[in-house]
Specification:
single chain, mainly beta, 6-stranded antiparallel barrel, 5 helices, globular
Length: about 650
């Protein structure tokens, strides 16, 4: 019967074995933006469209007089149901951006850049849609101011170039493409670490136009602008400065940059052993001081000699750069391959050399490989059993009637602990728009006023029936104080947890891609969630599931010093024709369930805290990428029930590379 009795016998039987020199005062080759934010109260409020055709239900001109460009930043209350969209048009050159509920998430709740000081905003409501809303928190605008020249000698020899493999970053830097990640849904882009260290606006522009005759920048057409997210970076000076990023789709064309440019990207090459006979090309978006002002922050290129600053982490070359060249590819002219990323100036009127980080610096190389690969995924499902006090903090613990609110944000719900406590997870009262939707869940510390550091992460699967849905963390010991549990509901397919009636509670939100500031939520007045501080027997993912790596799985809240078996299977829907989950009440494990079809198991002993762990080596076989394995713990618990066995929640482990 579902192989449960042989496994109990196994438990009862016990365990089975199973730096570099740098020039004086090197300058980052960045061209800093002196932008400003103008707070906005523009809000269409919720608008229904009961008609059978798409209709403009709200229109608003937006102007910051005299500004050379504008960007809109959207607020908490924006809501674009399927079929609805925003249309934003530059009144200077007619550039248009179309934003749907999906694209606005990928763009971090912000618009493209628009030339001129005025745009026209339209909210187009889809047929038979409700609660259409556009909400603008701020309008970004600004002028640019430069950093000193790092021209090698007294002449700027750079010339305009037109390489489609690279673009200009908002902050005043250069970024360049190295191809798709392994899943094919993002382009990989390299720049300098100091270009992405603190910038919250992450947009890259391709096909950058000439600047004005006076040197004022002109923004690319919205069709040529793309959002990107920071994947990994280092900003620690010459030879220790790099950034790896993932570029998303244009909201108008729905293309990635390499799809728009015909598949063009830079190849990464081998750094020469000696500078002798080797030349370096730098192509990027530097400022100008001694050449045509219309080339300011426009793509330019030049070849210069590779120099003797070559060492384990850095490169040195006599190729002209200026502010704005930070992040440019360091191209080995003899092969055309990229061997580094330009980061710092060092040239002057009397010579010297400019500097970059080698492409083969170990942590840089590892970050590129990590960004390319398919991520493994661990998702908890079901729940463990056992006679434990489950919840140490609750707000509206019986649920209620949801307010039917969907937003493109991450929401963090505040809770407090009075004593030192181990948090294992939480349950959120919510519902999906249809079917099972899996979202990321997080546990945050507090900086005293809002969420701060991430303490633990997990996944939550939400169904379309309003209910409490669980997320299980690795056991996390917390001191008394304030903390937050959070979910990423930015795809607008899971309701924000706020009830039509009930007790008040505090929540915070932030816009995707979830690297900016938190703000108190005015939408969430009555959240409904329960923090699990002890709970039943719980399984948690110790490592990311990857081929060729050890798959580690942990156990918490088991009995102390007793055998525990980790089951492994390939299904959580049926076992030998019997549907899963299967209630074990009839076998004597009251309130417990078998959640997976077990095909193998490993037995270990629990420790003095009732915890355990198991490690399983995964073969290095690309054919296994995407395969889902299912795991569940059984723990021998004398006297807990007639069967003397407790079960954990289940884990689905989808293998990456």
């Amino acid at each position: 019967m579902l192989r449960i009795l042989p496994l109990v016998a196994l438990l009862c039987a016990g365990t089975a074995p199973l730096q570099a020199q740098s020039p004086s005062n090197p300058l980052p080759s960045i061209f800093n933006t002196a932008s400003a934010l103008l707070p906005s109260t523009i809000d269409s409020q919720a608008i229904d469209n009961p008609s059978n055709q798409a209709t403009v239900v709200f229109a608003q001109p937006i102007q910051v007089t005299g500004s050379p460009w504008l960007q809109l930043q959207f607020g908490e209350n924006i809501s674009l149901p399927a079929g609805s969209f925003l249309r934003i048009t530059s009144m200077r050159d007619g550039g248009v951006q179309r934003h749907t509920g999906e694209t606005i998430v990928e763009w971090g709740a912000q618009s493209a850049f628009f030339n001129g000081d005025q745009v026209f905003l339209e909210l187009v409501a889809g047929p038979n849609t409700s609660k259409n809303r556009v909400d603008i928190d701020a309008i970004q605008y600004g002028l640019l101011s430069g950093v000193g020249s790092t021209i090698c000698g007294d002449t700027d020899d750079r010339v305009q170039s037109f390489d489609d493999r690279q673009g200009r970053l908002f902050i005043g830097c250069t970024g360049w493409l190295i191809g798709l990640n392994d899943t094919g849904d993002r382009d990989l882009m390299i720049t300098a670490g100091h270009c992405v260290d603190s910038s919250a606006t992450r947009i890259i522009e391709f096909n950058v136009p000439l600047s004005t005759p006076g040197g004022g920048i002109v923004r690319s057409n919205p069709d040529d602008q793309y959002p990107f997210t920071r994947d990994a970076f280092l900003n620690a000076g010459v030879g220790s400065d790099w950034g790896v990023n993932l570029v998303g789709r244009n909201s108008n064309t729905l293309q990635l940059p390499t799809e728009a440019n015909g598949g063009q990207f830079y190849n990464l090459g081998t750094v020469p052993a000696t500078p002798d006979g080797n030349d370096i090309r730098i192509t990027g978006y530097g400022s100008v001081q001694r050449i045509d002002p219309s080339l300011n922050l426009v793509q330019k290129t030049l070849v210069g000699p590779m120099q003797n600053g070559l060492n384990a982490n850095s490169l040195n070359y006599g190729t002209d750069t200026t502010g704005g060249n930070s992040g440019s590819p360091v191209i080995h002219e003899q092969t055309g391959d990229v061997i580094g990323v330009h980061t710092h100036g060092g040239c002057s009127d009397t010579g010297g050399g400019n500097n970059g980080t080698r492409i083969d610096r170990p942590d840089f190389d590892e970050a590129i490989g990590d960004a390319r690969r398919i991520r493994g995924l661990s998702t908890a499902f079901g729940s463990g059993c056992g006679s434990f006090d489950s919840f140490c903090f609750e707000v509206n613990p019986s649920g209620g009637t949801l307010s039917d609110e969907f937003r493109t944000n991450e929401y963090a719900y505040q809770f407090t602990l009075q004593t030192e406590t181990t948090v294992n997870g939480f349950e959120l009262f919510t519902a999906s728009t249809g079917g099972d939707i899996t979202i990321e869940a997080r546990l945050y510390a507090s900086d005293g006023s809002e969420p701060s550091a991430v303490l633990a992460t997990s996944m939550m699967t939400v169904g379309d029936v309003p209910a409490f849905y669980p997320a299980t963390f690795a056991p996390t010991l917390l001191a008394p104080g304030t903390y937050y549990v959070a979910v990423d509901s930015s795809n607008q397919d899971v309701q924000v947890s706020t009830l039509q009636s009930g007790s008040p509670g505090q929540a915070f939100f932030r816009n995707p891609p979830f690297s900016g500031n938190w703000n108190p939520s005015t939408l969430v007045q009555r959240p409904s969630f329960r923090v699990d501080c002890t709970g039943g027997v719980a399984a948690f993912a110790g490592t990311e599931p990857r081929i060729g790596q050890a798959l580690e799985t942990g156990l918490v809240s088991g009995e102390v010093g007793t055998p525990a078996a980790l089951l492994l299977g390939f299904s959580n829907t049926s076992s030998g024709g019997t549907p899963l989950p299967f209630d074990l009440d009839g076998l004597g494990a009251i309130g417990c369930q078998l959640l997976i079809d077990s095909v193998s198991s490993e037995s270990v002993m629990t420790d003095a805290n009732g915890g355990a762990s198991s490690t399983l080596a995964m073969p290095s076989n690309n054919a296994l990428i995407g395969l889902s394995l299912f795991q569940q713990w059984l723990v021998l618990a004398p006297g807990a029930n007639p069967l003397n066995v407790l079960t954990s929640n289940g884990l689905e482990r989808t293998l990456g590379n």
